[in-house]
């Protein structure tokens, strides 16, 4: 069963747009308003940016009430997608409010180049603060159906990744059994929505590869038509070959519309705009996508 209407509000993004009253920040946050065939509405908050205050400010401008949010999805552990979680849960004022994420979202991930820096912000203390404020953690590496026609992707396993997407575009590490291990950001999950126009795939940073995530959504849903892909593609550090292969696969899959920004990078955005023309749109805080 497909959903009737989808409206996606960009609450957090690195860019606020020209002559805009909205606030930008490094990070990403979407409010996804889904109406099913019975006209029942579900509001899903996908990621919470680095800070909650700009998100709440932008929600006010868009006449959105945080207390109407039904669930939170945290795409992966990095601070620009999880940093605002405590304040957002407090603003939602529901007990419980389910928070869907991968079981490894609390790992300590860090970069070594150009110097040691932490990539994630979620600690045991923050986990407990969220719980005290009403958050209920739903941690699964498997896909979870939220409502009919809407599901998380679960972990994109290495064997599910296309060969050219198996190498991360960013070098991160974590400690396992006292040893340094390369972090391939296996904790990233996405979301797919089945609509009359085709699939909508929502991603945070697409560290496992945006094409691999789309293919997982097609496999899980059984729907081959992809209408829109929305989110960060993390091609900012990618070489030209990877960008070209990504675009070639997106076209081969018949993706009709691309909405991207955040970590995608100017070079990749330029190439996507060249290839998709008016079917490409740059994300910005305050943008509303109606499907």
UniProtKB/TrEMBL annotation:
InterPro entries: DHPS-like_MBL-fold (IPR041712), Metallo-B-lactamas (IPR001279), Metallo-beta-lactamase_dom (IPR052926), RibonucZ/Hydroxyglut_hydro (IPR036866). This is Beta-lactamase domain protein. GO terms for molecular function: transferase activity. SUPFAM superfamilies: Metallo-hydrolase/oxidoreductase. Coiled coil: none annotated. Residues 26-262 form the Metallo-beta-lactamase domain. PANTHER family: 7,8-DIHYDROPTERIN-6-METHYL-4-(BETA-D-RIBOFURANOSYL)-AMINOBENZENE-5'-PHOSPHATE SYNTHASE, METALLO-BETA-LACTAMASE SUPERFAMILY PROTEIN. It comes from the Archaea. CDD domains: DHPS-like_MBL-fold. Pfam families: Lactamase_B.
């Amino acid at each position: 069963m497909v959903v009737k209407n989808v409206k996606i509000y960009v609450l957090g993004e690195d860019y606020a747009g020209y002559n805009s009253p909205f606030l930008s920040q490094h990070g990403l946050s979407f409010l996804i308003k889904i109406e099913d065939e019975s006209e029942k509405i579900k509001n899903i908050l996908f990621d919470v940016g680095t800070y909650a205050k700009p998100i709440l400010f932008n929600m006010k401008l868009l006449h959105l009430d945080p207390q109407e949010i039904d669930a939170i999805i945290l795409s992966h552990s990095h601070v620009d997608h999880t940093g605002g979680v405590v304040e957002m849960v407090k603003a939602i004022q529901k007990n419980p409010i389910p928070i869907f994420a991968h079981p490894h979202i609390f790992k300590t991930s860090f970069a070594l180049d150009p110097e040691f820096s932490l990539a994630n912000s979620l600690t045991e203390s923050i986990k407990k603060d969220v719980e005290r404020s009403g958050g209920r953690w739903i941690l699964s590496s498997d896909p979870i159906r939220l409502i009919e026609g809407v599901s998380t992707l679960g972990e994109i396993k290495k064997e599910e990744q296309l060969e050219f997407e198996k190498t991360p575009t960013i070098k991160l590490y974590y400690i396992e059994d006292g040893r340094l291990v390369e972090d391939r950001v296996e904790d990233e999950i996405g979301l797919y929505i089945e609509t009359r126009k085709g699939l909508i795939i929502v991603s945070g940073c697409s560290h496992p590869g945006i094409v691999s995530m789309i293919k997982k959504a097609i496999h899980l849903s059984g729907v081959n038509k992809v209408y829109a892909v929305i989110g960060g593609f993390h091609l900012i550090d990618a070489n030209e070959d990877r960008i070209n292969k990504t675009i070639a696969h997106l076209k081969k899959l018949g993706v009709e519309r691309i909405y991207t920004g955040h970590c995608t990078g100017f070079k990749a955005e330029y190439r996507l705009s060249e290839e998709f023309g008016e079917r490409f749109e740059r994300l910005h805080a305050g943008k509303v996508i109606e499907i």
